[in-house]
Structures are given as structure tokens and as C-alpha cells.
Amino acid sequence: MAWSFGKIFSKLFSTARAVEAEDWENLEDTLLQGDFGPSVTDDILAAVHAVADNSATLDTDDLRRILGEVLEERLARFDPTLTLKSSPGQPAVVLVVGVNGVGKTTTIGKFAKFIATRGKRVVVGAADTFRAAAVDQLATWADRAGVDIVVPQHEGQDPAAVAYQTVERAIADGHDVVVIDTAGRLHTKSGLMDELGKVKRVIEKLVPVAEVLLVLDATTGQNGLNQADAFLEQAGVTGLVLTKLDGSARGGFVFAVQDQSGIPVKLVGQGEGIDDLTGFTPHVFVRQLLD
Amino acid sequence: MAVFSSLSERLTSALSSLRTKGKLSASDVDGTVREIRRALLEADVALEVVKDFTAAVRERAMSDDVNKALNPAQQVVQIVNDELVGILGGETAQLEFAKTPPTVIMLAGLQGSGKTTFAGKLGKYLKAQGHTPVLVACDLQRPNAVTQLTVVAEQAGVAIFAPEPGNGKGNPVAVAKDGVKFAKQKQFDTVIIDTAGRLGVDEDLMREARAVRDATSPDEVLFVLDAMIGQDAVTTAKAFQDGVDFTGVVLTKLDGDARGGAALSVRGLTNRPIVFASTGETLDDLEQFYPDRMASRILDLGDILTLIEQAQKNFDEDEAAKVADKIATDSFTLADFLDQLQQIRKMGSMKGMLGMLPGAGKMREQLDNFDEKDVDRTEAIIRSMTPLERDNPKLLNGSRRLRIAKGSGMTVTDVNALVNRFEAAAKMMKTVARGGTPTIPGMGPVPGGRVKAKALPKKKSSKSGNPAKRAVENSQAAIPSGGSFGLGASPADPSDDEMETMRKLIERGGL
């Protein structure tokens, strides 16, 4: 698999040797550079210290192992399973939200393919009626993924109406999963955040929303926390999608986001290809960081 | 661990012990620098930039002369800000236009950083300045990027050159070349080239961007960067500098609540100027980049800085030394006090000043009750005195007081209160100036003497919320409970601030 990200700890402890004070400093720097943020970095260091200080001999391999355990334990507190239960006439609705430019539309393209290949019938709803050509972009992805799409009837149509029509269509045509694209919005724009609440309420007149996925760009720094807070409050986010992990970013801020908001990471995107989306496994994620 | 919302608050807490000391010690500086480091990291400034930055601050804080207009805490903040603005670039950068048109501006950046939207904004911006821009669609990678640019161009009312449909088809280098040719033929004076977003680590796409650059030899290569980016700003900025060697930076999505530490990282690492700040959804939301505003956004110190600036601008040091001298030699008069009041007033409204002080949130209620007019009234009373009376309050007999009361539109009681308070306060200050321990009624001796001014706001809040009761308390407070020179009837007067100022003057007098 093409995880070029991570490896951040690999150069840290290349060969096993006794741990020196400098290693702790390097460890701290590495965590900070991985966007873990100062608070989580302190927490993790303390947790690693708590274990490490109890062992009589400590080499760098031990340190790496302890770190891995600490990180994995933090991630494993949350359940990354997607809930996409559906029955005829009762499709599972997934609402995809996030700030501008994090890769929502791309994620939806991949996600639609991801579930379509598992034998589900999928329809996507182009409720991003704001950004120029967003509908066309989603149509292209839907075409690539081989899934159905519902587009606005006219330019600038109310996104809630598009979402409603998509779910209506899914119920009529017997789709299993509905994925709704929404316009990117900065979490600080209250008017736009209210609109998101409306989209959700309108959908729930037909069926309950199964998942609200917040897409976060792995290159984001500590602002990811503010984003998660705002979207959790306004749209009831149930899961996180971490994108652009194929770059050089580490996405360490998800540790803080998970801790603070209690929302688990459910999917990770790591490339521009349509198959570059996978479920989230703490163990694998941590291995990628450490190996 | 206490959670503070802003660095202002954190620094205030870190520096609270420090405010009482005259000079910065190594451990004071270390504590402060730690807080700054944390704040910078939380603002997503790249670690290596943070390290250089804090080292520079530390060095300066240890070696700088003690700035007489500021207390130590303010002084550290001042150094931090100077360094920040220094790195961010002192002046607002401008676009370079070619001597012979067309000027070619190429945009590069990560996916989702906002290049296409920025292209439209820049087009509109330049058009408003009388230029004739044309947008060239070289992002042939992202699905429907070309369509998006077409729509954006239409919204901005500028021309577009988009011969290829995109979605993975077509050669961006050829399109870029033809775009410049097209501009020459059709007499467009600026060419804005939108390129495909790429990850810093994607060497193929970087090569393509380089080829576009080489084919068009742009006058400006603008690196478009999302203000929300984290530590990856380092890798990204370096990759783009090596890859396309950008000439300027555009920060986007600054209308969010990201602190924008990336601005500092990029400047610190590449030394390229930040030219534009993109701040909203509509095509008009584009601003020039102002380094000083960004500095205060990153550290969230805006208010303290404004205060420092005002204090520095308005504080006349010679004047201050003279006053301190007078206090010590017992020749501080009402006339001096009037000067003093005016010095403080030069800094702006008393209320505004108090509001800007760190920790002022706690004093919210007092601030709301604070009546700016009290200072006016005090001034009016002093101004109604003859110069002789101002220099020698002992002259003030009953008829003089009545005249002053009439002249200032106040009552004799008010005049009495002011004179009493002035005398008591002058006496107390003299004690402080000579290194003694002043007493505040009901509090006993104040430890350390100089801490006094800090303890005062608390004292205020102990006043009764019942107006009648409060009036009684105030009338009892003939001795300066808040070092008050103001009128006794006011529930919260400006005295703390005056007292603080006085205190500083005394300290500065080297006594």
C-alpha cells in the first residue's frame, strides 16, 4: 500500500541502543511536528514516561514499542465501525460535511465506489449548490464509481431540497445507501452552519441520518479541533474522514480531535485514485506512524 | 492544566508574578518564553520556526535595556511582537508588474488550498485597478476544475482562456504557453495561470508545474496556502520553493478562526513575502496582507499591543522623572496632578484603557460602572483653582472652596473630598517613594509595597452592591482607599490606574 506518510518515528530510533535524554527531546519534537499539538504531546510523553520509567533497562526499541502501545490505546478508545444498516424503503443516509477544500467531493466519489463494490446500490446527492462546478465534479466521480446521482433542478437550488429529493429517489428506486455532498463551509460562518442543520432536519423527515461524516484534511493543524467542535454541535457529526494522508502530513491532530470530541475516525483517504479510501484501523495507523 | 482561551490570558497569568518586579530575571524570561512557545505551537507555527523565534525573544529579553515606559510583562510582549512583525515582513508587499505587458502570474499550491477561487478574486481585484486580466485554465487534473474556473471568471467579469476540457486530458504546459500568446494577441495586460493542485511530495506534478513556469517565465509565482495548515507547512513550503521557487505567498481561508501560524512558518523558512490575504466566499473578499495585523492574530495579543503602543507614544519620560522627583521631595501639587491626569488621558479613554488591560474581564462590572465624566469633574475642580491654590492646597479656606465649587459646577463637599484625598494620597505616595510600607485602611501594611496597585481592583469589588450602602462606604473612604483622587461619590473611579501610573513613576525615578 502506498502510505508515503508517516515514517516519522522511523528515523528517530533506527537502531536499538540505550535511551538518552536527547531521545525524549527528539520524541517531543517529532510529536509536535506531526501536528499532535502541545497538549496531546505532553499527555503522550507523560504516558510513555509512566511505563518507561518503571523498566530497569530501556533501549530505543522498548521506547518505540511503548509509544506504539500508548498511541494505539488512545485511538482504540473509539469505535471506527461505520453504521450503514438499511432495509427496503429505508436507505442508510450519509451526510458529508467539512470546510472548504478538504476533499469532500473526492471522498464521496471514493466512498460511493467503496460501498458499491460491496454490493450496495448507491445514489449520491449533489447538494453543494454553492461552489462553481461542484455538481459537475461530483457527476464525474459518480460516473467513475458507477453510481446514480441526483443533481439540483436549477442553479443555486436550496441544498436541503436537493438532499430531500435524493433520499426520495433512493426510497422510490430501492437504493441501499444515500451519500449527500454539501458545500464546504468554514465552521465560523454561523449562517452556513445553520443551513447544515436544516439539511439534516429535512432529510430526517423521510429517514434518520445514519452517519454524518466530517472530512478533515490531514495537513490541517490545531484548527482541526475547532472544526470538529463546530460541526459536531451544528451537524451532529458521527465520524471523521481523514484525507490527503498520501502527502507529507501526519494528521496527528486527530488524536486531539478524537479525545476532545469523542468522534471516531472512520475512514482514511490517501490518494487521488478512486480506490484510495480505506476503513480506519488504529493498529494499522499506528504502525504507519512507527515503522 | 488550566485552559486559557488566549495567549493574552496565559501570558497574563505567567507574568503576574513578574509584574511586581523591576527587572526580568532569567527564570522569568524562561517561563514567559515557554508560554509563547506553546502559544505559537497551538497557532500551528512550524516547530523549527518556533525554536528560532523563542531563542531570539529570549536573547533580546535578557539583553534589552529596561524600557522605561513599560512594565516587564509589557516589555516581553513588545519584544515578541517586534520579532513577529520582523519575520512577517515590515511592509505590505506589492505585486510586481512586467515592464512590457502581459504580466504573467502563476498560481501554485496544494489541493484544496483555494487556487481557483483565488484566481477569480485576483482577476476581479486587478480589473478594478484598471488592468485587463485573463485567466488561463491549466488545472487539467481535478475533475471539472476548468468548468469551475470558467464560472469563476464569469462571476468576476474577466476573460478566460480554456482550450482544454481538463479531467485528465490535455497538456497544461501547452495551454499555459498558448495562454500567454493569446494575451499578447488580444492585448490583455495580465495573465493569471491556474495550475493543478499537488502534494508537496508529488514529484511528477511538481515537474509539470516547473515546466509551466519555464514555458511562461512568470513575473510572479504565487504560492497559495491554506491558513489552516499545520506543521506540514514546512515540508510544503520547502517543496514548492525548491519546485517552482515562488515569489510571493497568498494566505487563504483567513475568514475562519485559524490563527494562521503558517504565515510565520512560510516567512521564516522561505523569506518570501505574503502578498494577499483571502478572507471570504465572495470574489470581493481579497485583501492585501498586513504583517502587523497577522502578528497580533497569531498570538492573539492585539489589545495589549494597542495599549503598549499608546503608552509608548504618549508617555513623556522627562515629565515622568520630574513628577517622581516632586513626589519624593514633597513638592507634588494639584497642578502636577492635573498634568498627570492629562498624561493618562492622552492614552485614550480611561474605560477603553482599562478594558485593554489583561485580566480586565474580571473587572467587567467595575468597568461598566466607571464614569468617564469623573475625570472631567476632577479636572474641572482643579482648573477652577488659581495657580497659587493648586501649588498650595493649604490656602483653600471656606470662601475659596465655595468659589471653586461654583466655578466648576460642583458642590463644596466634592471639593473637600478631592482635597482630602489628594493630601492623603500624596502622603502615601511619599511613603512609597521613600521605600516605606504604605497602609491601606482595613488591610494593614501591604507586603512589598509595590504590589499595592495590583491588589486594588479586588478591593473595589468589595464595595457594596447596594447604592445606599455604597454611598456610605464611599463617604467613609476619605482616606484614599484606591489611591483615589477622584470624587468620593463615584462607585468606581479611575484611581487604580492613576495609582499604577504613579507607582511606575516612582519606581522609574530610581528611588
Describe this structure in words.
The complex is a heterodimer of chains A (291) and B (511). Chain A is an alpha/beta fold. Chain A has a domain at 92-290: P-loop containing nucleotide triphosphate hydrolases (Rossmann fold, 3-Layer(aba) Sandwich), CATH 3.40.50. Chain A is 44% helix and 15% strand. Chain A contains ten helices and eight strands. Chain A has helices at residues 21-33, 38-52, 60-75, 104-116, 134-145, 159-173, 190-203, 223-235, 253-261, 282-290; strands spanning 92-97, 122-127, 148-150, 177-182, 209-217, 239-243, 265-269, 277-279. Chain A has an eight-stranded mixed sheet, with helices on both faces. The longest helix of chain A has 16 residues, at 60-75. Chain A is elongated and about 70 Å long. The two termini of chain A are 13 Å apart. With 511 residues, chain B is an alpha/beta fold. In chain B, helix 9 links the parallel strand 5 (220-226) and strand 6. Chain B is built from 23 helices and ten strands. In chain B, the strands form two sheets. An eight-stranded mixed sheet of chain B has the order 3-2-4-1-5-6-7-8, sandwiched between helices. At the A-B interface, helix 1, helix 5 and helix 8 of A face helix 2, helix 6 and helix 9 of B.
Strand content of chain B: 5-15%
Structural classification of chain B? alpha/beta
CATH topology of the domain at 92-290 in chain A: the name is Rossmann fold
CATH class category name of the domain at 92-290 in chain A: Alpha Beta
Q: Could you say which overall geometry of chain A the principal axes of the C-alpha atoms support? A: elongated
Give the termini distance of chain A in whole angstroms.
13 Å
Q: Quaternary status of these chains? A: heterodimer
What number of structural domains do the residues of chain B give?
A: 3
Strand order of the largest sheet of chain A: 3-2-4-1-5-6-7-8
Share of residues in helices of chain B: 40-55%
Proportion of helical residues of chain A:
40-55%
Poorly predicted regions of chain B: 1-5, 356-364, 437-495, 505-511
Average pLDDT figure of chain B = 74
The CATH architecture of the largest domain in chain B is Orthogonal Bundle
GO biological process, one term (chain A): SRP-dependent cotranslational protein targeting to membrane
Domain AAA+ ATPase (chain A): 90-290
Membrane topology (chain A): Peripheral membrane protein
Domain SRP54-type proteins GTP-binding (chain A): 91-291
